[in-house]
Every structure is written in C-alpha cells, then in structure tokens.
C-alpha cells in the first residue's frame, strides 16, 4: 500500500501543470490557447516572456527532482523502490497530467529534474549540451532531442563504469518520450518551418 501511495504521489507531483497555473494566476492567460498550446517552458517563454518561462521551467525540473527523492522521506522508509521509478511516474504525469485533462508538456525539463536528483553530473552535462545545441541550432525542439541522445550515450558509459543499468534504461525511456512528444516538431524541422529563438 505504501508503494502504491508513493507512486501515485509521484504521478500527482508530475501532473502539476506549472505553465497552466502560472499563466492563469499571474498573467490571466490560459497558455493552452496560445502559441503551440503546449504546457511547457518553451511555449511559456514564447507567450508570456522570460520570467514566466524561466519560472515554469524551474518548477517542471523540480517536479522530477521531488518525485525521485520521495523514497528518501521517512514515511516511505519501509518501501523498497528504485528512485528512478517514481521519477518516471512524474515524467508520465507531466506529459499526461490529471489536473489538465491529460494534455501536458513534452517531458524535457521534468526528465532533467529526475537526473538532477539521481545523478547530478548527468544533469549538468545535458544542460550544457542543451544550451550549446540551442546556440547553434536556435531550435528548442531539436536541442531537446540532441540532449536526449547525448544523455543516453553518457548512460551507456555510466553503465560500463558502474553497472547501473537502471539509469541507461530510464534515460532511454526519457529519450523515447521526448522524440515521441516532438514528432510534430520533427516534421516542421524537415520542412524548415520550426520556430527559432531570437534571444540566444
């Protein structure tokens, strides 16, 4: 029962629609009705500006971090579960949030938050990779997919160094989620119509 509660709580944490609530509370704007309609940091940056976008991105990262750290809480000390499992539930919650009719974001920031909790050097690597890729490509979507590939390559190295297959499997799943959620972006990238950022 405690395991079920932990996993449900992880999903509910991931389901918190940061972009929707920040937009409605502070900007009187339903982000779903503007831009791409996506409940994520990128669309928030585009529609509501840098402050809102940064706030939403940080909150989405922290959702993944909080979920992955749940097994460390004293109330769950009798539960034996790998921290990446509740992290995965938070990512699913972010993509399919119960609080927003199961239409959420693209899982990039929340996946990063899980890595921050579990193996912070990986988070630093993917974060640096993201900004380098963004500087070169000017496309958040393409940068996000590049990051997922780089993260998976690192997880293979990490596996051979430590034997931790959980990280490799989980980053592989995160990458699959990210590519799937960006399938429309892939089409626009191929057509040369994907929006580019102008602030970097």
Features:
10 helices, 200 residues, single chain, mainly alpha, 0% strand
Task: Provide the fold topology.
Elements: H1 2-15, H2 18-27, H3 41-48, H4 50-69, H5 84-95, H6 108-118, H7 120-137, H8 140-162, H9 165-181, H10 183-191
Helix pairs in contact: 1-4, 1-5, 2-4, 3-4, 4-5, 4-6, 5-6, 5-9, 6-7, 7-8, 8-9
Overview of the structural elements:
The protein has 200 residues and is mainly α. The chain is built from 10 helices and no strands. The chain has helices spanning 2-15, 18-27, 41-48, 50-69, 84-95, 108-118, 120-137, 140-162, 165-181, 183-191. The protein starts with a helix and ends in a 9-residue tail after the last helix. The mean pLDDT is 94.
Provide a concise account of the structure shown.
The chain is 71% helix and 0% strand.
Largest sheet data:
none
Cα-to-Cα separation, first versus last residue? 48 Å
Portion in beta strands = under 5%
Average pLDDT for all residues: 94
- Give the total of beta strands: 0
């Amino acid at each position: 029962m405690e395991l079920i509660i932990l996993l449900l709580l992880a999903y509910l944490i991931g389901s918190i629609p940061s972009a929707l609530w920040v937009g409605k509370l502070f900007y009187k704007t339903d982000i779903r009705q503007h831009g791409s309609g996506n409940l994520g940091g990128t669309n928030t940056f585009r529609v509501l500006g840098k402050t809102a976008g940064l706030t939403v991105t940080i909150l989405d990262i922290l959702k993944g971090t909080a979920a992955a750290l749940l097994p460390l809480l004293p109330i769950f000390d009798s539960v034996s579960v790998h921290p990446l499992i509740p992290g995965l539930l938070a990512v699913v919650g972010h993509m399919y949030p119960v609080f927003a009719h199961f239409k959420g974001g693209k899982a990039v920031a929340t996946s990063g938050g899980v890595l921050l909790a579990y193996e912070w050097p990986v988070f630093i690597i993917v974060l640096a990779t993201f900004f380098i890729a963004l500087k070169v490509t000017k496309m958040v979507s393409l940068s996000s997919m590049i990051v997922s590939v780089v993260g998976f390559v690192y997880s293979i190295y990490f596996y051979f160094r430590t034997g931790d297959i959980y990280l490799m499997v989980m980053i592989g799943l995160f990458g699959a989620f990210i590519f799937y959620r960006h399938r429309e972006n892939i089409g626009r990238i191929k057509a040369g119509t994907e929006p580019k950022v102008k602030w970097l």
